Give the backbone structure.
Amino acid sequence: MIRLLSLFESSNFQWVFISTILLGMAAGMVGVMSNLRQQGLMSDAISHAALPGVILAFLLTGEKQLPVLIIGAGISGLIAAFFIYGIEQSTRIKRDAAMGIILSVFFGGGIMLLSIANRSGGGQSGLDSFIFGQAASMVRSDTYVMGGLALLVMLLIFVFFKQWKVVLFDPQHANMMGINAHLFSSLYTFLLVLVIVIVIQAVGVILMAALLIIPALSARYWTHSLLILFLLSGFFGGFAGAAGTLISSSESNLPTGPFIVVTSSGIFILSLFFGAEKGLFHLKRYINKTALQSDGTSGGDEK
Amino acid sequence: MKKQSAAMGLMLIGGLLTACGDQEQQADESPVKVVATTSQIGDSVSEIGGDLVEVTSLMGPGVDPHSYQATQNDINALQEADIVFYNGLHLEGKMDEIFEQISGSKPVLALGEAVEEENLLTDADNPEVVDPHIWFDVPLWKEALESATSELIELLPEDEEVLEDQKNAYFEELDSLIEESENLMGSIDEEKRVLVTAHDAFGYFGRMHDLEVIGLQGLSTEDEVGINEIQQTVNLLTEREIPSVFVESSISDRSIQAVIQGAEQSGHKVSLGGELYSDAMGEEETEEGTYIGMYLHNAKTISKALQEDGE
Amino acid sequence: MSYTAWILLTGSLVGISCGLVGVLLILRKMAMMADAISHTVLLGIVSAYLISSSLDGGSMLIGAMLAGLLTAWLVQWFESTGIHSDAAIGVVFTTLFAIGVILISTSVGNVHLDVNHALMGEISFIPWNTVHLPVIGQIPQATLLLMIITIIVIAVIALFYKEWKVTTFDPALAASLGIPVLLMHYVFMTLVSVTTVAAFDAVGAIMVVAMLITPAAAANLWTDKLLTMLIISAVIGAASSCAGYGIAIWLNTSISGSMAFATGILFVFSYLFSPRHGQLAKWFHKPGEI
C-alpha cells in the first residue's frame, strides 16, 4: 500500500497514468461510433496501415520528430481508409476482405521501407518502437497531447451530438433532416485516424483495436442511450487505462499496453454476463428488447 | 544509387552463376571473404586480416542486432562467405540457429563462445542468461579475437606469419586503447561512477572500468521498458545525485528522455551525457566507425559527462 | 537445390496453401479471422513453450493449432450472443495476444522467444535450417512442413469439395442436406490455423494475412466458379511470392515484406484488368452489369 502511494508521488507514473486514462477515454468514445457502424476492425487495419507512412515520413525528411511521424502515419492511415471504402464500393469484395488486403499489403510495404531505412545509416533507431508502443516512457508533453486529443474528441461528439445520433442510427434519413451525412462520415474517419495515430505510440499497432472496440462493446450491455453509451465507454476506456497502468507498475518488467487490454477485456466479460440491459443473465430482457436493439446494430449499416 | 543497384544486379547474377561451381575458384589471389554480424567484429577482423580478407558486416551503423532483419544482399554475402564470425550468446537472437546450420558447410565462429566461460557476465536475476556485449571488455575482446585469428590461420595456413604480425600490431593498438580508456575513466570521482543507459549493454564496460551500470531495458532490446524501471532509475539518480545519463545510437531515446524529465520533476537536474555506441558503431569512414574509435568515443563521452558537476 | 530455388519453393508453397484456404475464407466472409488467428497463434506458441519448455516445432504446432481453435470457438460463441463479428474478432484476438505478450514478459523472461520475429518471420534463413530425409536428402524444415500442410489442404478441400461448396454458398441448404455445418466450420478453422502456423513460421504473421486474403480476393474478381477461383488464387499466391522475392532482391529489402507487398500489386492488377469484375471492363460496358 505504501509502495502504491509512493508510486502516485512519482511524476513519471503520474504522466503515464494520466495519459493512459485520457487516451483510453478518447479511444473509448470514438470506439462507440465505429462499433455502431460495425467497423470495429477498421482501427486494426488503419493502425497497421500507418506504418509505411511513419517510415516514409522519416525517409523523406530524415527527422524522427514525433509530429512529422504522426503526420506521415495519419496520411497513410487516411489513404488506407479511403482504399478500403473504395474496394468495398467498387467491387464485390466485402469490407472485411478489403481491410485484410489493405492491412497486410500496407504493413508489408512498411516492413520493406523499414528494412531500407535500416540500411540508410544512423538515426533510424526506434522507428520500430512505433509498432509495439512504449507506454511507460510517456512524459508531460504526451499528457498534454493526450489531453488535447480527448478534449477534441469530446467536443466534436457533444457539440454535434444530435447530428451524430441521426448519422449513426439512421443514415438514410440524415439528408432528409438537413444533415450532411457525408460530411459527418468524413469527420468520423478523420477522428478515427487521429485517435489511432496518436494512441498507437502508447500501445502499439496490434493492441490498438482493443482500445477502440472493447470499451464500446462493453458499454452496450448497460444502456441504450447514445449519450450514456459515449460516457460509459469513455469511462470504461479510462478505467482500463488507469488499472492497466497500475497493474503494470506494481512489478518490474510488466508491459503496460497488454495489461490495459486485459483489464478492458475483464470489464467486457463482466458486462457480458451481468450487463443491466443485455447481459446474459438478463436473458428475458434481452429477448424483449430485440426489437429495440436491432435498430441499434443494423441501423448503422450503410448499403 | 543506380550504380549501386546495377552492381548489385551484376553481383547477383554472378552469384547465381557461380553458386553451383565456386569451390575451385577461390584459389590464391582473391582475398578471403569474411562475413561478420556486428561491425565491431567486422572492423577488428579486417584490422587483423588486412589485405588478406574482405570483410562484410551485416549490421550497419544504427542497426540494433536484437531486432536485425536480413536482406537479400546479406544472404548473398553469407552464402559466398569463406568464413563467418558472429557474436553469439544470443546477441543475434534467432540467427544463432542459422549459424549452427551454416557451420556444416563452412567455418563459423561465435566469438562470445570462444572465450573462457568464467569471464562472462550473467544476468543478475537469471544466471542462465549471459551478457553478450563482450566487446566492451577489451582484454576479453582480445581473447575472442585470438580465436578468430586462429580460425583465419586455419583457412590461410601459408599466411600465418602475416596474420600473426597484423594481429600483434592490432593488439598493441588495443593495449594503448586500454591504457587510454583507463586513464579517462579513472579520473571520475568514486561516488559518480554510475552509468545509466537505455539497455544493459555496458556490463563488461562497467566491470572493466569499475563503474556501476544501470540499463533501463534488459540485455535484449526486445523487452518493453516498464514504468517501474523508469521510476527506480529516477529515484536512484535523485538519491545519488548522478549528473548524467546516456542514450544509445541504436535505440530509441524516449525512455531515457522520460527518465531525465522525471528526475527534473523531482528536483534533480540530469543532463544528457551524450550518445554512446552500444550495439552498433558509428558511420563508416568516421572515427566512431572503427572499434577503437567508438570505444574511445564512449570512454570520452562518459568521463566528460560524469566529471561535470551536476549542481 | 540452390538457395534461391528453396526460397521460391517455400514462398510458392505458402502462396498455394494460403491461396486455397483463403478462397473459402473470403467466400465465408471470414477474412478477418485470418488476421485474428495469425495473432493469437502467439499465445499458442508461448503456452506450448511454457508447458513443454522447449522450442521444438511439434509442440509449437499443436499449441498454435489449439490457440487457433480457441479463437474460432470464442468468436463463434460471442457472435452467438449477438455481438457483431467484427467486434467479436477484435475482442478475442487482442485479448489473447495481450495475454501472450504478458506471458512472454513475465514467465519466459529472457529466453529468446520474441514477438518481433514471430510477427515478421524470416524466410531468408529457411534454406539453411535443414533436416535430413531418407530418400529426398537435405530439405529445409519449414519447407517440408509446408509441403505436408499443402498436401493436407489440397486433400481436405478435394475430398469434401461438394460439402465445402454447399456449406460456403448456402449453409441453410447444407443443413437440410444433412451436412454437419458446424463441424465443417471447425474443420475449416483447424485448416486455417494449421496453414497459418506453417506459413507463419516461415514468413511471419503479417505475410500470412496477406497471402490468405489478397490472392483469394483477387481471384474473386476473375471468376465466379469455385474451382477456377481456387486455382487462380493459388497461382496468384505463388506468383506473388516469386514476384516479391524479385522485388526484395531489386530493392535489397525484407523478403517477407516484399512478398506481402507483391500480393497487393497483383490485386491492383486484377482490380483494373480482370475481364469480369475489373474496373476497365466496367468502364467499357458502362451501365448494366455490376
Chain C has a mean pLDDT of 85.
